[in-house]
């Protein structure tokens, strides 16, 4: 199923909301770069969206805690997600 | 087996180059006889508003360019129903030409049916 | 800079021989651009040139090979809507050479 990668803050871009409108059963969501700002509250409102992954280095760099409902991944984990899913959709703007 | 390609077009025309780049990618793929489809969602649905007159801002009409899709072999374009509704648009008020607009309620299932998705 | 001379007027071309100013196009300019490609224009050429210009007015872009073949077929029938026919008129690359002679911009996706 589809891997959705969101790299913009949900407070400055429609990337996350557009992505969630196109999120299906069995899909996965990966937050990277400014996409990790979704961790500050927004994801808690979306219980239907799972699994959610987050690039640990991007969250740490921005001083964000990763909640228990979100799985932290490193670069190798990101690559693994890409090989496990198809297609991959990048929501980058 | 032929790879199926989807261009996901989320940007309004003219404000940045992404809308045009999405169209160019699809036209290039179609010219190479690939299976290439297009899904308009988010502000991308604004690309289909009729009577765009961008000459005074020194741009080519994207709406006219889009009408070239059928002659390039792309007969239909998918359009996200929810994005239309959010923007108060009705599919019947959008550009009507050779290009058949197909409303999509479940974009997740549509996206999942492709081998590759390009975002614009 | 490359150019062609017509009635003492210098008409600038880009390095591939396309008109720099699309407004410079006239039938006489077309004949000279064709001659530079080794093509003598006949009625068969002119009906394609007119359709290339119609294509550009309709879609505001220059055609690639496949859409050109389809468009010509729609307007002039299946006999002329074939790549071999267009190849004979505008060798070796009908979309590109035809667009050049018709005064259209270089096709951006002429693959």
Question: What attributes does this structure have?
Answer:
heterotrimer, A: alpha/beta, Hypothetical Protein Ychn, Chain: A, C: 111 residues, Dissimilatory Siroheme-sulfite Reductase, Chain: A, domain 1, Arc Repressor Mutant, subunit A, two-stranded antiparallel ribbon
The number of distinct helices of chain C, counting runs of at least 4 residues, comes to 5
Query: How much of the polypeptide of chain A forms β-strand, as a percent range?
Result: 15-25%
Distance between the termini of chain C: 26 Å
Radius of gyration of chain C: 13 Å
Order of helices and strands of chain A: EHEEHEHE
CATH domain topology of the largest domain in chain C: Arc Repressor Mutant, subunit A
The biggest sheet of chain C, with number of strands, parallel, antiparallel or mixed sense and barrel status, is: 2 strands, antiparallel
What is the alpha-carbon Rg of chain A in Å? 12 Å
In the CATH classification, which architecture of the largest domain in chain C applies? Answer: Orthogonal Bundle
Binned strand content of chain C: 5-15%
CATH class of the largest domain in chain C: Mainly Alpha
CATH class of chain A: Alpha Beta
The rounded distance between the terminal residues' Cα atoms of chain A is 22 Å
| Main sheet makeup of chain A | 5 strands, parallel
Shape of chain C: globular
**Tally of domains of chain C:** 2
Mean pLDDT across every amino acid position of chain A: 93
Encode the helix/strand succession of chain C as letters: EEHHHHH
Annotated CATH architecture of chain A:
3-Layer(aba) Sandwich
- How many distinct helices of chain A? 3
Say what the CATH topology of chain A is. Answer: Hypothetical Protein Ychn, Chain: A
GO biological process, one term (chain C): tRNA wobble position uridine thiolation
Protein name (chain C): Sulfurtransferase
GO molecular function (chain C): sulfur carrier activity; transferase activity
Subcellular location (chain C): Cytoplasm
């Amino acid at each position: 199923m589809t891997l959705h990668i969101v790299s913009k803050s949900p407070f400055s871009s429609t990337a996350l909301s557009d992505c969630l409108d196109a999120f299906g059963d069995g899909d996965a969501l990966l937050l990277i770069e400014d996409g990790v700002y979704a961790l500050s509250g927004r994801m808690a409102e979306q219980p239907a969206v799972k699994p959610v992954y987050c690039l640990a280095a991007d969250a740490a760099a921005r001083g964000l805690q990763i909640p228990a409902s979100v799985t932290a991944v490193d670069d190798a984990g990101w690559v693994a997600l890409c090989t496990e899913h198809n297609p991959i959709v990048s929501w980058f703007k | 087996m032929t790879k199926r390609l989807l261009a996901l077009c989320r940007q309004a025309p003219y404000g940045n180059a992404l809308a045009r780049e999405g169209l160019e990618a699809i036209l290039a793929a179609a010219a190479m006889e690939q299976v290439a489809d297009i899904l308009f969602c988010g502000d991308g649905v604004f690309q289909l508003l009729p009577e765009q007159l961008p000459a005074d801002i020194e741009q080519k009409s994207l709406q006219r360019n889009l009408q070239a899709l059928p002659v390039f072999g792309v007969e239909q374009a998918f359009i996200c129903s929810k994005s239309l509704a959010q923007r108060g648009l009705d599919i019947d008020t959008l550009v009507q030409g050779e290009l058949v607009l197909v409303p999509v309620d479940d974009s997740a299932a549509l996206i999942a049916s492709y081998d590759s998705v390009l975002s614009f | 800079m490359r150019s062609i001379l017509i009635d003492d007027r210098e008409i600038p071309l880009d390095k591939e021989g396309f008109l720099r100013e699309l407004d410079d196009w006239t039938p006489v300019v077309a004949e000279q651009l064709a001659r530079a490609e080794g093509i003598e224009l006949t009625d068969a050429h002119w009906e394609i040139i007119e359709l290339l210009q119609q294509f550009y007015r309709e879609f505001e872009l220059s055609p690639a090979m496949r859409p050109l073949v389809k468009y010509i077929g729609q307007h002039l029938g299946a006999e002329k809507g074939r790549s071999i026919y267009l190849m004979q008129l505008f060798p070796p690359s009908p979309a590109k050479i035809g667009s050049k002679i018709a005064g259209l911009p270089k096709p951006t996706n002429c693959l």
